[in-house]
TrEMBL record:
InterPro entries: Poly_Biosynth_Transport. Pfam families: Polysacc_synt_3. Coiled coil: none annotated. This is Oligosaccharide flippase family protein. Keywords: Cell membrane, Membrane, Transmembrane, Transmembrane helix. GO terms for cellular component: plasma membrane. It is a multi-pass membrane protein. It comes from the Bacteria. The chain crosses the membrane at residues 7-31, 43-68, 89-108, 128-148, 160-180, 186-205, 226-243, 263-287, 308-326, 346-368, 380-398, 404-422, 434-456, 468-490.
Amino acid sequence: MRRSLTLNICSSIIGRIFSVALMFIFTPIYIELLGIESYGLIGFYTTILASIAFLDQALNPLISRYFAQASNKDTPLSNLWNAFRTLEALVLFASVLLATVLALSAPWLSSNFTQGTTVSNPQSLRAIQLMGLMVAVQWPSSFYSAALSGMGEQVALNSVRVLTAVLQWFGGALVLAALSNEIQSLFLWHAACFALLSSLLRVRVKQCVQPNKTRFQWNQEVLRQSWRFSIGTLAIGFTGTLLTQSDKFLVAKFTSLSSFAAYSLSFTLASVVSVLIVQPALIVAYPHFTQLATAGMKDALAKEYRRWTQLTVFVTLPPVGALVFYGEDIAAWWLGTKGGDTPQEIGALLPWIALGTMLNVLMVLPYTLQLAHSWAKLSAYKNLLILPFFLIALWYGIPHSGPIVGAWAWLAINVLYFAFEVPIMHRRLLQHALYPWWVFDTTLPCVLGLLIFYTLNIVLYSWAGVSPLITCLASIVLVLLSTASILPACRELLHTAKRSVRY
């Protein structure tokens, strides 16, 4: 089991590395070919997609949990296939409905949220209408991904994702360079790639679970047994979406497309942490924790919970520290001369966004632990309590002080999560793990790592005049060594790696 788990983790991380690498390579190319304001429409689509992603939470955790629990039981393939097809029908209906609503609301969205000097209103209108097509073909892929994750098919899942991502990014650059440099052409190409991704993932699910010579039968039981869990995860997704995406819409409404592009690019840089860590961890940890919780293996679950947390801290600190203290340098290196004043804008936003992202990453495993126990109320109530204060602060703050208010708010809500949600959760789940997790697994190593970055930044960069690249690399190495020495899971991993190399 441990070997297959390690293979799934490695495949997920490798797949995410490829995705991040492609994003970093082609984003400057897209900006050069499209212009910074047209690229802002790509950020706007990302915001829209993230804003409706909460609907995924109604069915994706359900299908993943259903398949993960089935691995501990002798569930007939016909039951799995019928459950999958039942939920798939709802997902496909939702994708068509969302695409229709988005296309019909394109005039309103274009006139209220895409203000630019080089992008005309008809151009943005056509682009938003094409966003509806992209939603229709991309939306089902997340459901198929959840199904494959529940079955432990991360290798196949990430292989398909990497292949289609390469086709999407390379092909998009060729379309812009050789055929047309308009954003509509790029969106059409991306829609074709998303359709291919969804089709290939569905084929793999069908290969895994469809029994021979068995007709589909509507499975109402899977909905009847799990509707409370689905409503809870849907509430979490809805409130979480408002907390993570409302700032993007308000920045788009009250600032120019170029300022919104800088804000979107800041979150893109910070998302490297979540793409490489949060998403692979959630994909693999959720079915793994569910299996342990279902089997009643409380001690093993507590051990795995702390081990995964320590490894998450180990790989999170270096990129977060680099973004906090060298954000402007990284943005300037990434965008080059094509970015104009954008690196300076990113440099002002990124420290707050990166710190908030670090805390958000740390909260992924407590959230996963709650879902593994079918407990969704805590996260839902927490988001409902914070949401009105968050929206009021954004509504009054962004028009007066600009996008920086959104960055501060992102950090603030994640501080509240870390400070209040964790102890409340541990009163019910793994009570004895609270203080070790809170103090030794997260707070101390994170504070130590950031202090190392700060000290070397002052001593080497500010006083000695050493180049920021060398200072940043030295900080990363020192942080890795220090966290590896104080976190038991990291020491165990290093010893295991040494034995593997030796033998």
